[in-house]
Each structure stands twice: as structure tokens, then as C-alpha cells.
């Protein structure tokens, strides 16, 4: 079951937050009123601020729990792998509980304006996909079933694709609001 650990580590290079070289997303200032049919019309500056807060605060909180889960798993996989029993123990006592916290925080997220809603859905879907992969991995270890481990690997690949799409869409949206955005990676 060791080959799964390498796949997970390669995929875990992708996390939700985006940052520039200073560790936070920053704006390039912009003030323009955006008009539309929405009663709660926000100015470009208000949307920019909402987007910055969403990334630097809300998503960063989710990402911190993700990083805890990734680091937990890394401690018993890849070069650190000793045996399935230790991996199972870490997965059930630390990795999955940490990721459950990430899921809880993800469910609390709200998009501050409509253009951000697709990325919010991407985050929620990706988080659920990764959690499903962890649960499948736990089941594979319990049952020593290579087919279930393959299913977990497939879920991890799906997660990687979902996070990649999220970052691409977030990059495009942040450019619209003059915000520098660079995906933050676990490397």
C-alpha cells in the first residue's frame, strides 16, 4: 500500500490559499463603482476588499487545517513510511480529524459577492473529494484492499484537478480586481 503515499504527497502540493511573495494576496488599488441589477451593488474597491478578506482570512483558515492534515500524513508516508499500522493510527487520530476541521470551516464560507460563488463551490467540492479519499484510504488499510486504495488514488487525482481549476479561476477573478494572486503550495 506504500505507492499510495507517494501519490498523496505529490497531490498535496496544491492547497487552497493564494499568496504573493509576502505571504498574503495584495491589491493594486482600484476604485470604481460596479453597477448592476443587484440591490446590494458593491464598488470595485468593496469587492476587492471582500476578495482579499476571503482569500487571506477565510481560505487561509481552511488551508491551515489542510496543511495540518497533509503534514500529519507526510509524517507516516513516503520516506517516513514504517508500516500500515502506524499509518492507520496517524490517519485516524490526526489526519482525518484535522481534515474534518477543514471541512467544517469550508461549510462556513460565504462568497462576499456573486462572482466568487463558483470558486466557493469549487472549494467545497474539492474539500469533500479529498476527505472522501482519506476515508477510502482508511478503509483500504483496514481491509488491506488494493482496489479501494486505487479508488482513493483516483479521488486524489480528482482533487488535484479541482484545486487546479480553483486556482486558475481565482487567478482570473483576482486579475479583474487588480489583485496579485499566486497559488500557495505545500512543497
Report on this structure.
With 187 residues, the protein is mainly alpha-helical. 66% of the residues lie in helices and 6% in strands. The chain has five helices and four strands. The chain is elongated.
List the helices and strands and how they pair.
Blueprint: H1 2-11, E1 14-18, E2 26-27, H2 44-74, H3 84-108, H4 117-143, H5 146-176, E3 179-180, E4 183-185
Antiparallel strand pairs: 1-4, 2-3
Distance between the termini: 23 Å
Main beta-sheet annotation: 2 strands, antiparallel
Please mark out the parts with pLDDT under 50 across 5 or more consecutive residues, or reply none: 5-14, 19-39
Strand order of the largest sheet: 1-4
Structural class: mainly alpha
Please give the share of residues in helix.
55-70%
Shape: elongated
Q: What Rg is obtained from the alpha carbons, in whole angstroms?
A: 18 Å
Concise structural overview:
With 187 residues, the chain is mainly alpha-helical.
Which properties best describe this structure?
187 residues, mainly alpha, two-stranded antiparallel sheet, 5 helices
Amino acid at each position: 500500500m506504500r505507492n499510495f503515499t507517494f501519490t498523496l504527497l505529490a497531490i498535496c502540493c496544491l492547497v487552497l490559499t493564494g499568496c504573493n511573495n509576502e505571504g498574503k494576496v495584495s491589491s493594486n488599488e482600484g476604485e470604481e463603482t460596479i453597477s448592476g441589477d443587484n440591490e446590494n451593488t458593491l464598488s470595485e474597491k468593496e469587492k476587492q476588499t471582500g476578495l482579499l478578506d476571503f482569500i487571506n482570512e477565510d481560505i487561509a483558515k481552511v488551508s491551515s487545517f489542510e496543511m495540518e492534515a497533509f503534514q500529519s500524513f507526510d509524517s507516516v508516508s513516503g520516506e517516513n513510511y514504517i508500516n500500515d499500522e502506524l499509518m492507520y493510527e496517524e490517519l485516524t487520530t490526526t489526519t482525518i480529524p484535522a481534515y474534518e476541521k477543514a471541512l467544517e470551516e469550508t461549510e462556513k464560507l460565504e462568497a462576499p459577492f456573486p462572482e466568487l460563488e463558483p470558486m466557493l463551490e469549487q472549494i467545497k467540492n474539492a474539500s469533500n473529494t479529498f476527505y472522501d479519499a482519506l476515508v477510502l484510504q482508511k478503509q483500504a488499510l483496514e481491509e488491506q484492499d488494493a482496489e479501494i486504495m486505487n479508488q482513493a488514488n483516483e479521488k486524489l487525482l480528482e482533487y488535484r484537478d479541482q484545486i487546479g481549476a480553483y486556482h486558475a479561476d481565482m487567478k482570473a477573478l483576482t486579475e479583474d480586481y487588480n489583485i496579485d494572486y499566486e497559488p500557495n503550495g505545500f512543497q
